[in-house]
Amino acid sequence: MAKLKDRIEEYQLATDYKLLNRVPIIIVLNGKNFSKITQLLDKPYDIKFAECILSTTQRLCSEIEGAVFAYQHNDEMMIIVRNDQNDNTMPWFDNKLQKICSVSSAIATLHFNQCADTIKLNMSGDPIFVSQTFMVPSVAEAINVLVYKQQHGFYASIQMACFYNLLNKYDNTTIKEMLVGLSIDEKIDLLRQECGIDFNTYYSSEFRRGVGCYKAPKIIDGSMKNKWFLNHELPIFAKDQSLINNVMRLGADIFRAGD
Q: Which ranges of the chain would DSSP assign to H, the alpha helix?
């Protein structure tokens, strides 16, 4: 008969899943119930909230071993991790799925709350981030995930911009009826006609396309250092993949001089 200790450990090991080694890993973090928790913030885009979420993104990148690129849009942060750059690269937490999810969620929740308290962000509850982790078979497919996420974020931004600006003139039900079945271009036209807002010039690139975080070599005090850099002016990944190709395959952006 197995000892109690062995039996309990067997239960634990049965769900102690490990991800495959030497393939890109993607960690996606989202705010839990943030539509309610952020109801007092400026909509569709709150500058203070963006400051906290971007600070959290940088913190995750600095804490997660093997992180090479992060993409942030709205309350979602996506970290792409590689552990195949060389033969000595070790996976973060030995690629144990439960640890990756729980620790990344804890880092994001703690840091975001600290930032929110510091700048007095008006949240309606206690922010918590949930984490999902999965693998893709290649760097090329990881890039495709970025393309999809940016496209999805762009569509969501247009939807939010239309909804919250139209609230100044119509009720929720009417707005939903106005938007249903409209294409992206039709929603942009509707926003211009009804609210006098040109979506592509009125809203910042970070609201429309998201923000990237990656290491960029810099000259600081005469020496070269790799620093985590926030790019607020991302290209459209579906049209121009030179930046993410460079970062994903080399681990850093092109040379950037200065402080």
A: 4-13, 34-37, 47-63, 97-118, 139-166, 172-179, 184-195, 199-202, 205-209, 242-250
CB 26 within 8 A of CB 81: yes
pLDDT tens profile 158-205: 999 999 999 999 999 999 999 999 999 999 999 999 999 999 999 999
CA distance linking residue 240 with residue 259, whole number of Å: 27
Is-contact 74 156, C-beta < 8 A? yes
Q: What class is the 16-138+205-250 domain?
A: alpha beta
pTM of the model: 0.91
Please give the average per-residue pLDDT across 37-59, as a whole number.
96
Residue 225: CB atoms within 10 Å: 11
Q: Is the pLDDT reported for residue 258 higher than 60?
A: no
Is residue 96 within 8 Å of residue 29, measured between CB atoms? no
For residues 130 and 112, is the Cβ–Cβ distance under 8 A?
Answer: no
